[in-house]
What we know:
Belongs to the leucine-binding protein family. The chain has two domains: 2-152, Rossmann fold (3-Layer(aba) Sandwich), CATH 3.40.50.2300; 157-280, Rossmann fold (3-Layer(aba) Sandwich). By secondary structure, the protein is of the alpha/beta class. Strand 8, helix 9 and strand 9 (258-261) form a beta-alpha-beta unit. The radius of gyration is 20 Å and the shape is globular. Strands 2-1-3-4-5 form a five-stranded parallel β-sheet, sandwiched between helices. It has a four-stranded parallel β-sheet with strand order 7-6-8-9, with helices on both faces. Helices cover 46% and strands 15% of the residues.
Amino acid sequence: MRGTFLNLTAAAALAMALSVSAAAAQKKYDPGATDTEIKVGQTVPLSGPASAYATIGKAQAAYMRMINEQGGINGRKINLIQYDDAYSPPKTVEQVRKLVESDEVLLTFQIIGTAPNAAVQKYLNVKKVPQLFAATGAAKFTDPKHYPWTMGFNPSYFVEGRIYGQYILKEHPNAKVGVLYQNDDLGKDYLNGLKAGLGDKAAKMIVAETSYELSEPTIDSQILRIRDAGADLIFSAATPKQAAQAIKKIAELGWHPVHILDINASSVGAVMKPAGLEASKGVISVGYVKDPADPSMKDDPGAQRYHAFMAK
């Protein structure tokens, strides 16, 4: 899965960052670090509407075990503590407080999701606990002036949205655009980026904007509104569950718009297969890492190491 491979890269970056910190450390450490251990905390949506992302946390836990089997970081073993937050911000707050105040982790690593990260950003910065590689591309996580203890990881959602806008102007200059977006910083950043890419043509080209809440069981009504507005191109700024629902509903309607999908929801395993591979044909998205499921990657050394790791 593309997202899993991406987050293994983040785990490798964590190992490098901790290695530098450990090398310079003295005998007195912050909570969560000793001569033998580095305690790291993470929340993962093991359940709930974004549970497709659970595979990221599982792969990262396996990667940490591999690092420990190889001797850890300068002799220190990584103790990764994971809690399920169901992609629910109030639950994220509860679990992160537990990680900081009870488990006394040195840092949080790759908390998954825009809304969950937003819910704990201020708290972690007040506590001066690193919010390392927050798994989101929302703009608010690259604000070192106000949140110096936060470091984002994903490429900018705004920039990605702008790329789609520029693509539409070039390839579909007469398109009537409908936008489906998640009603949080993820969806809003994508929407604003798309409008920036379309420039002064945005107001004329976008014929429908409709949002959804993560708690909604389906987004069928939103898809119908976009279709009924006369859109012939749809941009889904969504997470896996709703993206799969959108693909499936569009196919059921016999509607054939150009469909652009954000990278968070472009997984074959988590989105395309549940929606139906036939229905998913023609969906357009972007990528910025190697896809280990791509047959052209079968002889790539990095992909081969990935497959060996996953097999173990």
